Backbone:
């Protein structure tokens, strides 16, 4: 049972949860554009650390304004797992940002969004009632096939000499993302309020990311143009603050594998955002890719018979 006695469901997601996941996927898709814009003025890992710092303040404020409980972390036994979740959260972004710098964006997306498969395997082994059924496996595969088709043009382009290492780092980043989700479902964190689960990750990741930034050779030289600041605030307030809070609220109540499957939509929305905001070209198979992703998600979320 999650915190406050609310029932947790391993079945098909209700329409409200599906609608919220669609909104989150669209918000996260725009984040890809925001990261690209922000990187012009703030180094990537430093950007992630500052984002966690601002987001931690935003979550604290939202919790106070909305009356969201943070629990009693000194007495509820969640601190050890909270510290572990924060460390994994920091490592996820270190691997991801370093990996993106070594490989192409298209390859990075493909390896990062293998995360739903990791979540499905983890919950199958560790979470009763959230098994990897044949319909889920087929649905995930179809949705991922749509993702491959959406990025087919980018995958055919030449990659740099360190692309394989970058691919590996992005794969690890996706696995760490999945590990955080599975940890929340299988540890004492499953009983904690969503605000506390997120705050653990934000607060713990701040010093780790800020320390990693210079160790990875980043120069702390900032160019805070209005566009850079706006894109950074979108990440910190909209993504790491509000949207991650909504994500962990959903994870505490519904099947993690079904929720994670919807994240495959995030890069699809990212492609649309790139086309609308940056003038990037949509590939000829993009519509078919969207249909494949939608069909795959329908299979994943189809009620069990």
Residues:
């Amino acid at each position: 049972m999650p915190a406050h006695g609310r029932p947790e469901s391993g079945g098909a997601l209700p329409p409200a949860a599906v609608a919220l996941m669609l909104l989150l996927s669209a918000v996260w898709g725009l984040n890809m554009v925001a990261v690209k814009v922000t990187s012009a003025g703030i180094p990537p890992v430093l950007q992630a650390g500052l984002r966690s710092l601002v987001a931690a303040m935003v979550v604290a404020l939202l919790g106070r304004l909305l009356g969201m409980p943070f629990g009693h972390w000194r007495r509820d036994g969640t601190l050890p797992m909270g510290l572990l979740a924060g460390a994994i959260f920091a490592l996820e972004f270190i691997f991801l940002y370093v990996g993106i710098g070594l490989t192409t964006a298209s390859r990075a997306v493909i390896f990062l969004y293998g995360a739903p498969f990791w979540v499905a395997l983890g919950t199958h082994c560790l979470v009763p009632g959230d098994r990897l059924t044949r319909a889920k496996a087929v649905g995930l595969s179809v949705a991922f096939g749509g993702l491959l088709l959406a990025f087919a043009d980018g995958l055919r382009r030449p990659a740099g000499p360190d692309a394989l290492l970058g691919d590996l780092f992005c794969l690890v980043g996706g696995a760490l993302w999945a590990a955080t989700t599975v940890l929340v479902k299988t540890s004492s964190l499953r009983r904690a309020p969503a605000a506390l689960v997120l705050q653990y990750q934000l607060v713990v990741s701040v010093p780790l990311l800020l320390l990693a930034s210079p160790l990875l050779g980043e120069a702390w030289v900032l160019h805070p143009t209005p566009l850079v600041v706006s894109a950074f605030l979108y990440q910190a307030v909209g993504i790491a603050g509000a949207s991650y809070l909504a994500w962990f609220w959903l994870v505490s109540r519904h099947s993690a594998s079904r929720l994670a499957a919807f994240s495959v939509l995030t890069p699809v929305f990212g492609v649309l955002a790139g086309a609308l905001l940056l003038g990037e070209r949509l590939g000829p198979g993009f519509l078919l890719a969207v249909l494949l992703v939608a069909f795959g998600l329908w299979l994943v979320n189809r009620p069990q018979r």
About this structure: The mean pLDDT is 85. The chain has one domain: 12-301. The chain has 13 helices and no strands.
